[in-house]
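Thread title: Can someone regenerate the structure for this chain?

I was given the following input by a collaborator and told the matching structure tokens would be attached. They weren't. Posting the sequence so someone can regenerate them.
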Amino acid sequence: MEDTSEKKSSKGSKGTSDKKSTAKKSTAKKASEKKSASKKASDKKGAAKKTSEKKTSEKKVTAKAVGEYIEKVVLDAMPEADGMSDKVRDAMVYAVEAGGKRVRPTLMYLTYKGFSEKLADKSLRKKHDKAIESFIAAIEMIHTYSLIHDDLPALDNDSMRRGKPTVHTAFGEDIAILAGDGLLNYAYETAAKSFIVSPGDTDLEKALLILASKPGLYGMLGGQTLDVVLTGTEPTKEQLSYIYSNKTAALLECAVTIGATLAGISGDNLDKLQNAAYYVGMAFQVQDDILDVTGDKDVLGKDVSQDEKNGKVTFVTIYGLEKAAEYVRQASELAIGLIDEAYNNVMKDAADNQYIKLLKDMIIKLITREK
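Best answer:
Regenerated them for you:
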């Protein structure tokens, strides 16, 4: 007779083993599912955190924050005292610290940040984020040097600038001339430091050439020259346009094209942005003409009716206040339209980012300003 006890024992043992194995698999499956669910929850949490951080970051891009950043960059770049040339250095710092709207460095920065998202090379973008600070400071130095020399008795003979005595009034004409020279030279020394951040960078080379040419003979200096030469005479409309497009608009074109160049913009889109800056510059200067007639000295922080006093014919003189105001409106609309075209071309019709919105808001404020 066959012994069934071992078979029973063997069968019972196998059944128990199968149950244990099934239980283990079930436990492992549950643990795996739990782990997977936990990972998904973690991923969702991480994604939500990134979205939240992005939204928070966007909220921080305000005109005030940009203004504070520009101010810090400009003032941090100023030369330190050496104990020997402090007199002229103090005059340079005095002129820059007098404040002002920081229009040119802000236009440069907002243009760069608004378009630099297209830079595929993140390493290059990081370098340009730092390198542009040299150009931000440099263009404000160049602008301030031009104001110091403009205010001199031989030119506009102004005693107030930005609500403070002009440099030649505070330091003497000799130091004022040297302070202007000092700022112009130090601007290029500052801009050249950008190559320390990104040696051999062709975009920086292009930016430096723009910085050297736009304020020069065929730019701001050329416009100032014709303005001086024609003082006391009645310029033609062509001559007046030349003065405005070079004396004022050229440096704004300089700011925008440097910002765009470092953002990787070229060709037709770069031309659109340069033309936009041209219209901003023209509108800005005509608004200056209007304010010189209608403005308040205490609000402006400088003397009014200076054009009439110095025998200068302006847009207002030729066309009148009403047509001047209409020109400002039309030029600003053209500028905004060109920025929109360039942005849509580059960003493929994406919604305006925070910097582009600030750029356009700034342009509107510039041409409706009271000071």
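The chain has one domain: 61-367.
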